[in-house]
Specification:
By secondary structure, the protein is of the alpha/beta class. The protein has helices at about 60-65, 90-95, 110-115, 135-140, 165-180, 185-205, 230-240, 260-265, 280-290, 295-300, 310, 315-330, and strands at about 20, 20-25, 35-40, 45, 55, 75-80, 100, 120-125, 125, 145, 215, 225, 245, 255, 270-275, 305. It has 12 helices and 16 strands.
């Protein structure tokens, strides 16, 4: 994460594409060259035409395109190969159809080589100033961009990210992409389905004092990398029936101190599984790290694992809510 979301029938034409096994009806707007103006990261951005060669960065962003059935609009994606097994993901066909441009990150070079007409990435999910790979730099090359809403900078501190609750960010991006590509119906169906599935989990979730407290552990031994209130885990935890102990941190993915984890004494630790350090190695570290010995989650060995793609803004978020919700209903706080 540090390396790096109904028109009248007489007015529509139908183009059949596949996305997670669904048939998508692309509206007539998708065939037009008229401009579309969207609000992205608090700014109005105008796109002169429907993009036909989109390049994406990382798994969650790529799967947003796949979930909308937009593989045919993609020129490629960049993604490290440590983000889990892609064999059984719902969007396996998308990965097989679209070119894997890089197993590192996007660069100006591979974007230009792909003849991209839109780059869909985010701050620390591809966009980065140290390499000069920014929306402004791409604009100078004549390439439009769209920024993942979870990653929007909020101006509170240098580099702080997040401008709305994480699931709102997911729904905002799906709705915006639906408008841009003329797949508004598919986007609306996805959002409605996600909301319905999450509401069903929320209805069964513990309430009030029965809600267990949860710490999200991404990585790091000297200092843990975790989720504040603007990264997807915060609302995944909340809607699953828990309380993110770092909810007061006005950032998305960020570093905190172990002393704050000890002080907040979480009932459960959720481990993010990705990278060179396996989830099992992370679990062993947490259980053996002396400063955590009296933390409730460690004492009771209440550690739950979710994949990286579950925990960044992605169409896998509702499934993560459901799986974590099932686990949290077995946990007694305190």
């Amino acid at each position: 994460m540090r390396r790096f979301i109904p028109a009248a029938l007489c007015l529509a034409v139908t183009v059949t594409v596949t996305g997670c096994g669904a048939t998508v009806e692309r509206s007539a707007d998708a065939q037009k060259t008229s401009a579309v103006t969207l609000t992205n990261c608090g700014r109005e951005v105008t796109y002169d035409k429907v993009p036909e060669r989109v390049v994406t960065n990382d798994v969650g962003i790529t799967e947003l395109m796949f979930a909308l059935g937009l593989e045919d609009r993609m020129a490629g994606f960049a993604m490290p190969d440590d983000k889990g097994d892609l064999t059984d993901v719902p969007w396996k066909d998308g990965y097989e159809k679209v070119t894997w441009l890089s197993k590192d990150q996007l660069t100006k070079e591979n974007v230009l080589d792909a003849r991209a007409d839109l780059v869909f990435a985010g701050w620390n999910y591809g966009f980065r100033e140290d390499a000069g790979f920014t929306p402004d730099a791409l604009k100078k090359l004549g390439i439009p961009s769209y920024t993942l809403t979870e990653s929007c900078r909020n101006g509170r501190t240098k580099g702080a990210r997040g401008i709305m609750p994480p699931l709102d960010a997911l729904y905002t991006d799906l709705t915006n992409l639906g408008r841009l590509f003329g797949v508004e119906k598919r986007a609306a169906e996805l959002v409605a389905g996600f909301e319905q599935r999450i509401a069903a989990v929320d209805a069964k979730a513990p309430k009030g004092a029965d809600r267990p407290t949860v710490f999200l552990y991404d990585s790091g031994q000297d200092q843990p990398f975790t989720s504040g209130r603007y990264a997807a885990p915060d609302e995944i935890i909340d809607r699953a029936g828990g309380v993110n102990v770092m909810h007061d941190v006005a950032d998305s993915w960020t570093t905190v101190g172990w002393e704050s984890v000890v002080e907040r004494n979480p009932d459960v630790i959720v481990v993010c599984d990705y990278g060179d350090v396996s989830a099992e190695r992370k679990r062993r570290f947490l259980l053996s790290y002396a400063p955590l010995r009296n933390v409730s989650a460690v004492k009771h060995r209440q550690i739950f694992v979710l994949d990286y793609a579950d925990l960044v803004e992605s169409p896998r978020n509702p499934s993560a809510v459901a799986r974590l919700g099932s686990y949290l209903r077995t946990v007694s706080p305190g």
